[in-house]
Amino acid sequence: MSPNMKAAIALLLTLFGSHLLVHGSADAADGLRYDYSASTECKSHSEPALYQGGILTESTRKTEVKNVRTENGASSPGFVLSNLTADTIYSFSCWVQIKGRDSALIKARLNTASGTTCIGTTLARSHCWSFLKGGFVLDSPSLSSLLYFKASDQNDTTILVKSASLQPFSQEQWNQHREDSIQKRRKRFITVHVSDAQGNRVRGANVSAQQLSKDFPFGSAIASTILGNKPYQDWFAERFNAAVFENELKWYATEPQPGKLNYTLADGMLEFVRAHQISVRGHNIFWEDPKYTPSWVRNLTGNALKAAVNSRIRSLLRRYKGDFVHWDVSNEMLHFNFYEERLGPNATLEFFQTAKQADPLTTLFMNDFNVVETCEDDNASVDNYVVRLRQLMQGDEGMLQGIGLEGHFGKPNIPLMRAVLDKLATLKLPVWLTEIDISRNLGLQNQAAYLEEVLREGFSHPSMHGIMLWTALDKSGTCYQMCLTDTNFQNLPTGDEVDKLLKEWQSIDIKGQTNVRGSYSFSAFLGEHEVSVSSGNATKRVTFSLDGSQETKHINVQL
Ligand SMILES: *[C@@H]1O[C@H](CO)[C@@H](O)[C@H](O)[C@H]1NC(C)=O
Ligand SMILES: *[C@@H]1O[C@H](CO)[C@@H](O)[C@H](O)[C@H]1NC(C)=O
Ligand SMILES: *[C@@H]1O[C@H](CO)[C@@H](O)[C@H](O)[C@H]1NC(C)=O
Ligand SMILES: *[C@@H]1O[C@H](CO)[C@@H](O)[C@H](O)[C@H]1NC(C)=O
Ligand SMILES: *[C@@H]1O[C@H](CO)[C@@H](O)[C@H](O)[C@H]1NC(C)=O
Ligand SMILES: *[C@@H]1O[C@H](CO)[C@@H](O)[C@H](O)[C@H]1NC(C)=O
Ligand SMILES: *[C@@H]1O[C@H](CO)[C@@H](O)[C@H](O)[C@H]1NC(C)=O
Ligand SMILES: *[C@@H]1O[C@H](CO)[C@@H](O)[C@H](O)[C@H]1NC(C)=O
Questions:
Q1: 265 CB under 6 A from ligand 3?
Q2: What pLDDT sits at residue 22?
Q3: Which residue in 477, 383, 464, 474 sits closest to 430, CA to CA?
Q4: Any idea where the GH10 domain is (predicted)?
Q5: Residue 511 Cβ contacting ligand 7 at under 6 Å
Q6: Range name among 51-60, 230-239, 479-488 with the lowest pLDDT average
Q7: Is 498 domain-assigned?
Q8: Is the pLDDT of residue 19 over 70?
Q9: Residue 491 covered by a domain
Q10: 120: β partners
Q11: From the CA of 379, how far away is ligand 5's center (Å)?
């Protein structure tokens, strides 16, 4: 802990005495539910603390701004937290207002003996209250920690905090939230009623069910290396129902020189996905990063750039109308602004409008990194993303239809990830994880372990509509950060993890017998199913589609 932090803690102690000390251990009642609520509006009144404040006691919640000095000399309210335990999942939330300036990105930070990390952010304003939601998990216990707030631009900002809440969850409780959510969103109960021609209930009939296809899109990026590569094709098609082309649709790939369009690779890859009933995301129309803009486009300005841009959208979307389920229209615009800088602040909106005209049935996405991965990146704070997303949702009945989160993770902060998803869910648009991987610097075993956590969190979140990995195998036999297999398509630990989850998230070999009422009930993942019912030498098969609903699905079978 830095001397400044010690001084800050000492100051807090003298200001508030021991009632600010709160116990960090998780003794929450078993089965404590997670509160998914969130807000992305600035409200005239703060709302009550989640979990009634959790382990932050009543007296601390009444604490208003006290000028506690943080490292950079700014003032912040703070909480001294005693005895935080390792591996406990801490969910943090509060309402924030600032004074003396209109708006600022405010970060909640946690200082422990092992350093200081961001645990959540909010775009705070004067005169209204903004919701901050995040969390943390510690690698080792911390006897004394300081949770404080600061403006990300380091400027001295007066920060007011209300309704703060710190709720510890055990790993078991957290897993239970996921299970509950999966049962509610990804599965459904089915009752099979079996009768004979006279209407008698058939008791003791054998019922078995198989899932034929999955509703939830789960897939990965592929590269042109898959063309003509049977082992790669088989490996991919056996597992996934969704794909995205890593680079082959990017402008630099399809039009390396002005007017020299070449869709050979993209067409070949499209044939592969069509042959295997795999749906495919279109990635991407424009990439705001100048580094990945074709060099000839980088040289264009004004009307020449405008003409090139229009011809790019039209030729791409006309050629592939109906083929791609999504298009990432303006990639990474939280970090870069190549087009808006040159074509004006409405350029992105116009891209969306043109794309929607060209292919009205595709879903148009924004796509960016570091929104869900961390809260250290000021460009990609969740509220910053929400502001940009809202701009595109307004006007002409909303151009934007989906929220893309790349998901290039280091060591994931799982409660922060859930909190960010909660905030994005307030927009009521489909959310997709579009490019998940774990940094190669962490090693194969950690990649697998962290991947499991990220996938479980993503799959179980109520707002999640699809998950894509970013594991295309390139010509050099490497992947961007993380492969699932070696070059012989033998699974790496990450591939085993994916296979384990794919198996867990489907309903195969469900078996049972009808009860005295002639019925058999079970729960299955959404998708197409075949149920087979037999009694004696009579057998009936029924296929049906199980779509999302809270109602039990009833199937009547007559033997
Ligand atoms: C924290 O834990 C230590 C060691 O178990 C204990 O002595 C101390 O009283 C605890 N502090 C609080 C505030 O609970
Ligand atoms: C932050 O402070 C610096 C120097 O004090 C000032 O130049 C700058 O405008 C401030 N930024 C904001 C956003 O207030
Ligand atoms: C188009 O791309 C393919 C695949 O990269 C390449 O083999 C072919 O030569 C290209 N065609 C032209 C006309 O450049
Ligand atoms: C872009 O402009 C620079 C400087 O005018 C020139 O040297 C370069 O050849 C141009 N590049 C392309 C691809 O046109
Ligand atoms: C992020 O934002 C800052 C300005 O706030 C800018 O200088 C920087 O280039 C941006 N881009 C990235 C990739 O971080
Ligand atoms: C951007 O679009 C808005 C709404 O259509 C319009 O009012 C504004 O003038 C446009 N701005 C520019 C710079 O074209
Ligand atoms: C159900 O299957 C079991 C095992 O195959 C068989 O012994 C039994 O007779 C079957 N029951 C009926 C009602 O067909
Ligand atoms: C099996 O079917 C045959 C004719 O379809 C019928 O005669 C016979 O009784 C059935 N056996 C049983 C055990 O139900």
A1: yes
A2: 45
A3: 464
A4: 206-501
A5: no
A6: 51-60
A7: no
A8: no
A9: no
A10: 108
A11: 6
Q: Do 392 and 418 belong together in one domain?
A: yes
Q: Is the CB of 394 under 6 A from ligand 6?
A: no
Residue 23 has pLDDT above 60, yes or no: no
Q: What CATH number does residue 225 fall under?
A: 3.20.20.80
Residue 90: which region, alpha, beta or left (left: phi > 0; alpha: psi -120 to 50)? beta
The answer on 221 and 207 residing in a single domain is: no
From atom 13 of ligand 5, which residue's Cα is the shortest distance away? 335
The closest of 499, 464, 445, 515 to 36, measured between CA atoms, is 464
Domain that residue 413 falls in: 217-466
**Mean pLDDT computed over every residue of the chain:** 91
d(Cα 4, Cα 73) in Å, to the nearest integer? 9
Residue 480 belongs to some domain of the structure: no
Residue nearest to atom 2 of ligand 5 (CA): 379
Q: Is the minimum distance from the CB of 82 to ligand 1 under 6 angstroms?
A: yes
Residue 398 has pLDDT above 90, yes or no: no
- The Å distance, Cα 285 to ligand 4 centre, comes to 23
Q: Please count the helices (runs of H) and the strands (runs of E) in the chain.
A: 14, 26
Q: Is 398 left (phi over 0), alpha (psi -120 to 50) or beta?
A: left
In a domain, 368, yes or no: yes
Which residues participate in catalysis according to the annotation? Answer: 332, 435
From atom 3 of ligand 5, which residue's Cα is the shortest distance away? 379
Quote the number of domains for the chain: 3
| 216 pLDDT higher than 50 | yes
Task: Name which of 67-81, 265-279, 364-378 the model is least confident about.
Answer: 67-81
Q: Which residue's C-alpha comes closest to atom 13 of ligand 1?
A: 82
Identify the pLDDT of residue 64. 39
Cα–ligand 6 centroid distance for 416 (angstroms): 36
- Is the separation of the CB atoms in 132 and 39 below 8 Å? no
DSSP state of 412: -
Q: Do 401 and 339 reside in the same domain of the chain?
A: yes
| 345 ligand 6 Cβ < 6 A | yes
Question: CATH code at 82?
Answer: 2.60.120
Q: Could you tell me the pLDDT band of residue 80, with boundaries at 50, 70 and 90?
A: confident
